[in-house]
Amino acid sequence: MKLVRFLMKLNNETVSIELKNGTVVHGTITGVDISLNTHLKTVKLTVKGKNPLTLDHLSVRGNNVRYHILPDSLNLETLLVEETPRVKPKKPIADPSIAQLEQAVIKPTSY
User: Fold this and answer.
1) Helix or strand holding residue 15 (H, E)
2) Percent with pLDDT over 70 in the chain
3) Domain count within the chain
4) Does residue 28 sit within a domain?
5) In 3D, which of 31, 29, 57, 33 has the Cα closest to residue 43?
6) CB 41 within 8 A of CB 98
7) Residue 34: inside a domain, yes or no?
8) Rounded CA separation 31/60 (Å)
9) What is the CATH number of the domain that holds 61?
10) Strand partners, 65
């Protein structure tokens, strides 16, 4: 399962997100999109070296995230189960006439 698909299932979970610049965001996930952009509510934003800010809503751009820190109470086994199992595509059946042509090609010999 891809990480983004796992994170998309974490609606209404309270997480901490550490950003690449050292800022820590703590809040409740309202949604995660395919670009790993994370939307949170009831947020406490702690910029490195400054006092924490409290915000109602915040969106974090996916490429700025270093870590998603999950709560210990999260049941990973149920979240990691894929709803639809993967179906391996069948290999195409080779046309026998093409295989015969490949064998019939005369390869140059070294003199």
Assistant:
1) strand 14-19
2) 75
3) 1
4) yes
5) 57
6) no
7) yes
8) 11
9) 2.30.30.100
10) 19
Judge residue 107's burial from the number of C-beta atoms within 10 Å of its C-beta, 0-12 exposed, 13-18 middle, 19 or more buried: exposed
Q: Which two tokens stand for residue 70?
A: 């999950």
- pLDDT over threshold 80, residue 107: no
Contact 26, 76 (CB under 8 A): no
The pLDDT-based confidence of 104 (bands split at 50, 70, 90) is: low
List, for residues 49-93, the tens digit of each pLDDT value: 899 999 999 999 999 999 999 988 877 767 777 766 667 777 766
DSSP 16-82: EEEETTS-EEEEEEEEE-TT--EEEEEEEEE-TTS--EEEEEEEE-GGGEEEEE--TT--HHHHTS-
Please name the helix (run of DSSP H) or strand (run of DSSP E) that holds residue 110, with its range, or none.
none
For the chain, the maximum distance between any two Cα atoms, rounded to a whole number of angstroms, is 82
Give mean pLDDT, residues 12-28. 94
